[in-house]
Amino acid sequence: MTTPFLPKQAPKFHPGLLTELQSNVSNDVARYQISLIPKLPPNATIHDNGCGFGAATSEMIASDTIPKDSTITATDVNPLWLDQLRQSARDENWNDRVKIDIMDACAVTYPDASFDLSVTNFVFTGLKDPIAAAKHIQRTLKVGGTAVVAIWNDISWLEPMLAAHYKTRGKEAPLPPALCLSLTVEGFVKVLADAGWEEEKMQWEDLTVWLQTKNLNDYVRLSWGFLGMPEGGWTVEDEERWEEALEAMKEGIRGNAEGYREKDGEVGLRMDARIVVLRK
Ligand SMILES: C[S@@+](CC[C@H](N)C(=O)[O-])C[C@H]1O[C@@H](n2cnc3c(N)ncnc32)[C@H](O)[C@@H]1O
């Protein structure tokens, strides 16, 4: 088997890249969501569904409003992120509160009524069967329980990344798999309805967060290197046109007055989340 080609400018993959890519944003959203949920019962059971490296889990553990006797089951399909979360759990002494399992959000095997709170952040957009995932959230929630789900409504750096893709690969080039965001907010509302969630049990919230980075060049390189890989893998032409892609992306980011800010040596990239709080 031949080793896939990697442009010399691309960041070498390691699990910490997701942490760098997400920067502060998932944590900021999770902190806001915690402020929306009703008081949890003693010994509450919590599911962090599609947990990644555990942004929501770490915020819930740090929060004073989440009871200290609650337990969190953190699940994901990607063992690399789970290994990273296991490491954090060891380093931070969370092992008595956090159980970590590999689990597909579309085929959750926990029994009905397992959780008082279920959190599913920025997972739905890439799911093969989002209706099944929404049904599992409902099925595994206890009566009186709460689920919070977040998806991105607008990502200021996404259009610039698409512009870089089309500029360097041509207008007909298929989108990189990581940028095929199949679920819009409208589609998500329909998914919840199709899964049987009743409209009167939903509360919708919008939240703007600013992804913070010290260095736009580094962030653009990281995000292009992580998400920009085309269908079929990187090509020699991607390497040759790497800088051109990055310049196009930076130009698009800086040109979006509402999506870009620079303050005290730090760059902010706007990201708008749509959050739904569901009650069972
Ligand atoms: C953008 S990350 C968000 C991670 C985390 N929820 C957060 O807010 O930081 C999306 C996560 O969804 C996970 N994921 C994708 N498909 C999944 C599936 N079918 N079941 C469970 N997790 C999935 C990915 O592995 C990744 O960790």
Automatic annotation (TrEMBL):
UniProt keyword terms in alphabetical order: Methyltransferase, Transferase
Annotated ranges, domain Methyltransferase type: 48-148
A UniProt-annotated Pfam family: Methyltransf_11
MF annotations from Gene Ontology: S-adenosylmethionine-dependent methyltransferase activity
Protein name listed in UniProt: S-adenosyl-L-methionine-dependent methyltransferase
GO biological process terms held by the UniProt record: methylation
Organism listed in the record: Amniculicola lignicola CBS 123094
Taxon lineage: Eukaryota, Fungi, Dikarya, Ascomycota, Pezizomycotina
